[in-house]
Amino acid sequence: xxxxxxxxxxxxxxxxxxxxxxxxxxxxxxxxxxxxxxxxxxxxxxxxxxxxxxxxxxxxxxxxxxxxxxxxxxxxxxxxxxxxxxxxxxxxxxxxxxxxxxxxxxxxxxxxxxxxxxxxxxxxxxxxxxxxxxxxxxxxxxxxxxxxxxxxxxxxxxxxxxxxxxxxxxxxxxxxxxxxxxxxxxxxxxxxxxxxxxxxxxxxxxxxxxxxxxxxxxxxxxxxxxxxxxxxxxxxxxxxxxxxxxxxxxxxxxxxxxxxxxxxxxxxxxxxxxxxxxxxxxxxxxxxxxxxxxxxxxxxxxxxxxxxxxxxxxxxxxxxxxxxxxxxxxxxxx
Length: 334
Ligand SMILES: Nc1nc2c(ncn2[C@@H]2O[C@H](COP(=O)(O)OP(=O)(O)OP(=O)(O)O)[C@@H](O)[C@H]2O)c(=O)[nH]1
Ligand SMILES: [Mg+2]
Description:
Blueprint: H1 9-18, H2 37-44, H3 60-83, E1 95-100, H4 107-119, E2 138-145, E3 152-159, H5 175-181, E4 188-189, E5 215-221, H6 230-245, E6 249-255, H7 260-264, H8 278-287, E7 295-297, H9 309-331
Parallel strand pairs: 1-3, 1-5, 5-6, 6-7
Antiparallel strand pairs: 2-3, 2-4
Bound molecules: guanosine-5'-triphosphate and magnesium ion.
């Protein structure tokens, strides 16, 4: 087969013009030469500067490209909004969001996901894993940095030990009011059977409004909603009463969704494999008594190497909604 370019004469000329009036010569064509990166390298190294042209097919590829382009635009506008975000009241410099949920529901992974989007690369600062008891054993208040050398953004994500249906395992229920009020210091070593006391040397005795939790996110694995034991549901109800008594805003975050992009666009059709459905989301919202408009789905970064604009968009959208819900809390203050 002849080694001739697929570019039309005018495409070739405009490419040459774009590159600074150079003259192009075809060195390698994957349909003629061996179609692997090594043979391409062999043909093209020790040559003058080279240009690689990749043709994408029509159909699925076009849909994929338009999906990624749309998501990238949306992601970038959410990033701009969150980078310039300021709490609506002067007396609170930053919003604190607490993640509460069963062991292994994806709380720490969500924090890593948010941090990653702002860093522009995947970071795994919060320890993540799978065990019957919680992997997270310290109470952590994570700041979010805009880029590796950027400023800190005015919101923090608070990570805690996972809840467990058994007493004496997982986050101690008596710790929750102290966390909500802002008495618990960063890096406090949680003890499932012994709550923090005001005698602890780092106990924050007189927390101000800025130290307290402004929004609680109940985090649940969407695939295990129907497996929640009655004891766990009872624990949630107890926590919700507590949260309500402090007038703290709350949202429900459903993790491990499988088709976030589609859900995000309100597209629940065209599902040829078992995927997260609208009814799963509605069941979870009813079970925890959190309105559907404050119920969000997310697919955290877990084993990926690179960021994905569709995932980024979903993660930033959820974060933006959490901040909006927290702002409603301030509006309601006496
Ligand atoms: N597929 C998938 N896996 C997830 C997602 N989020 C978390 N995981 C996985 O679920 C497991 C638990 O995640 P963690 O982030 O450690 O959960 P956690 O709620 O912090 O758990 P504890 O600290 O033990 O209470 C890990 O193996 C994660 O990789 C998600 O959205 N999708
Ligand atoms: Mg954790």
